[in-house]
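Bug: token stream looks shifted between consecutive jobs. Job 1:
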Amino acid sequence: MPAYPLAYPLAYPLACAQAQLTRRRWLAAALAGSSVAAWAQARQVLQVGPRRALRSLAAAAQAAGDHCLIEVDAGEYRADVAYWPQNGLLLRAVGGRVQLKAEGAHIMGKGIFVTAGQNQRIEGFDFSGARVPDGNGAGIRMDRGSLQLRDCRFHGNQTGLLTNNEADARLSLEDCEFGPILPGQRHNHNLYVGRIAELRVIGCHLHHGHFGHLLKSRAAFTQLLYSRLSDEPEGRASYELEFPNGGRAWVMGNLIVQGAQTDNPALLAYGAEGQVWPENELILVHNTLIDRRASSGSFLQLKTQSGPAPVRVRLLNNLFAGPSRMVPARDWEASANGHAAWDDFVNASEGDYRLRPGSRWQGRAVDAGLAQAPSGPRLILRPERQFQAPHHSVALADDAGRSLSPGAFPLD
């Protein structure tokens, strides 16, 4: 098995001789790996709270060493900002949510937290109100290393989470929420990932952008699974999803909704600034893409000839709805994609984009095959989970004999 700096591999390695292993096994292993097992041998445990010896996160950051477990009592922590260079660090909320409110404070001119260690993990934290002079105040600024977030929320910041361009950095997000962005910002993004090795997003909700994108990733390898990217009626995001430097992008099981107030005629963009990575591939499988604008545009805006080799595009089992166009190019692998009408959904006007009983698209998905990850493991392109509000994913029923439907809700 290839080495992963983060606590779990999302794509479980499947040798050709073991192809019969189900995706339920590798995804169960992935989610199980998100436990605190990696910190079971922690050499140091610190407790933070108003009645503890350590009353602030800033103090804990000064006291913590490598492989430290920091348990933080639920409550509000105002103007409490910190730099975290430690390796093997686990920050965990205890007894409820930890609410970090910047209130004008920032660390290093970057945001509420700045992280720079390997194998770091944060659970149950809310980040709000980050402002800095250069306009890029982030709930978390990831300078380098590897970071895993679970059940964290980012709202009312200039930028939700921002990373540097570090070629070996890795970021994993599970059950997190990004939005709304702080009003008055121009071209700031809910989640902005620089040129890092890998981004993984599972069961997250990104919403209410403000002229910037909901998710912008320059990573060499991006996996976006079972999430919701939706600008909602009040939002004004540009692209919902952009990969400006190409790379390998796997997008499966997501609901992606472009709001009516956007200034951008496209929902997803790839390669607009030219490919910088040696391998470039866009896989869209079992997604539901909705355009709520009044005028026609394009669901996808792909620039696939700006690198040393053409980009491989695979477009399978997706549903599109709205006035925009979706015309696959001749060199794309495209099958079982459909343009749905509003009455194909349970209640599109209320944001319920599950297929209604009797829809013409029910049961019409095809076998999408496998995808090969850069480091060797394979992913069977059959969804095993689906997004659940507010920011989670749930396992699909184990019904091997039932045909799947296109879109993000294949069994509903």
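Job 2, same session, no restart:
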Amino acid sequence: MAVTHGTRLRIVAVLSAAVTAAGLALTATPAQAAPAEGRIIGAGAPNAVKDSYIVILNERSGTKSSSGEGRRLMARYGGEVSHTYRAAINGYAADLSETEAKRLAADPAVAQVVQDTTVQASATQTNPPSWGLDRIDQANLPLNGSYTYPDSAGSGVTAYVIDTGVRITHVDFGGRASHGYDAIDNDFVADDGNGHGTHVAGTVAGTSYGVAKKARIVGVRVLNNAGSGTTAQVVAGIDWVTANAVKPAVANMSLGGGANTAIDTAVRNSIASGITYAVAAGNNGLPAANYSPARVSEAITVGATTSTDARASYSNTGALVDLFAPGSAITSAWRTSDTASSSISGTSMASPHVAGAAAIYLGNHTSSTPAQVSSALVAAATPGVVTNPGTGTPNRLLRVIP
């Protein structure tokens, strides 16, 4: 005979009464404890990518991202891995629900789970002539109509442009540019569908527009054709550079977003591997300490100036800004043809001036560490010429070391 729900309840009640009457103690079965949950760093960020996270493994656990153990760990919590990081960080980019991510964060094998976010390049279109190269070879205004640089010009140094890709066939690169890695399409053809990366590369090492005119250029695409990308993609680009860099090497990151520990960790570890990083301070007119990778102290964080040596109104500020460099109305190569150029503004344009200066220095001091390169550029900078640098911001303007 089928027992209905109501019947079952009555049976339980009768049995309970009988047991109690017999003087037997009833022992309640404890409810199963809820799974432990950890903290997701950056959860709730306005630019969060839903259900996407960066997982950094705990080095003390001995688990490696390339191992089966690491993959099983991710699978245990429902993680679908989109990127495996082996060099800049030991971990993954993965798709999980928020609940799964919190439970993964509590696992002893995991150091951090960081919310994936969007990052983007920032530049404002303008059309005046460029003046940046003319400014960085002299201490004071007025401009003298020339750019003087050492004949070595970064020869033997590779500059990694972590950006929207690079039009490697542009005549300004003189055959010195090549594709590295495309984290957007997950292949090794880093074409530029935006223009920002080609412009940056031209300032780093173009024959006409560049600071280090003999350095090699490698495009690493982490931002899409709209100039936007995710933390997962940016870290994938940094990871590739860290694993594959031909040294001596510099890297430029003219991009950023809110404070992000995954990006910070990747950049910091890449620098520790021997690659000098120049990074844009950001275009918010706020402290650089609030933004990544600008807040990475081991990187060379660069603010922007105008042609009158004033801090550009958009340029971020604060003690983490190492140097200023020309950033407003900078003309460089563009993606639309092999001879195209464009003038744009931003700390995105200032940072590659410093990356180029770092390449020149490394060309003449090939065994220098990133810290030594940074110290040399800071020491050579012209002090006290930037007007309104911002509260607590070091007043130092880039000057190329001959």
